[in-house]
Amino acid sequence: MIELTSIQYLPGKRIVEHYGLVQGSTIRAKHLGRDLMASLKNLVGGELKGYTELLSEARAEATSRMVKQAERFGANAVINVRYATSSVAQGAAELFAYGTAVKVEPE
C-alpha cells in the first residue's frame, strides 16, 4: 500500500529512494441534471452537492492514477501531494494530482 502525504517527509521514516514526479489526472464534464439543480440552488443558496460529488469522484480518480504510476516505479510512498484544477473547455474541467514518488523505510 502506498502512503500519501502533503508534507515533504513521513514522520518516523527515512527516504531511501527518490523516483521523481508522479501524476494523475481526469477531465470531467458537467452533467445536465447537475447543472439544472445547481442553477436552482444558486437562487436559494446552499451547497451544490452534485458538484461536490463530481469533484470528489475526480479527486479519487486522479489520486488513483498517480498511485498506480508510483507503484510502477516501485515506490511505497508519495510525498508533497498536491491537487490543481483547470478549465479545458466550456463545461469541462481537469483535476490534476501530483507528488514525489519515494521509497521509505522505518528510521
Overview of the structural elements:
- With 107 residues, the chain is an alpha+beta fold.
- It has one domain (3-106): Translation Initiation Factor IF3 (2-Layer Sandwich).
- The protein is built from two helices and four strands, in the order E-E-H-H-E-E.
- The protein has helices at residues 32-44, 49-73; strands at residues 3-4, 13-29, 77-89, 92-106.
- It has a four-stranded mixed sheet.
- A hairpin with a 2-residue loop joins strand 3 (77-89) and strand 4 (92-106).
- It is elongated and about 55 Å long.
- The model has no long low-confidence stretch (mean pLDDT 87).
| CATH class type | Alpha Beta
User: How many individual β-strands?
Assistant: 4
Tell me the strand order in the biggest sheet: 1-3-4-2
CATH superfamily: Hypothetical protein apc22750. Chain B
What is the mean pLDDT?
A: 87
What is the helical fraction, as a range of percent?
25-40%
Rg computed from alpha carbons, rounded to a whole number of angstroms: 17 Å
CATH fold assignment? Translation Initiation Factor IF3
Overall spatial form = elongated
- Compute the separation of the termini in Å: 19 Å
Decide which structural class fits the backbone: alpha+beta
Strand content: 35-45%
Give the helices and strands, then pairings.
Blueprint: E1 3-4, E2 13-29, H1 32-44, H2 49-73, E3 77-89, E4 92-106
Parallel strand pairs: 1-3
Antiparallel strand pairs: 2-4, 3-4
List the defining traits of the structure above.
Translation Initiation Factor IF3; four-stranded mixed sheet; 107 residues; elongated; alpha+beta; 2 helices
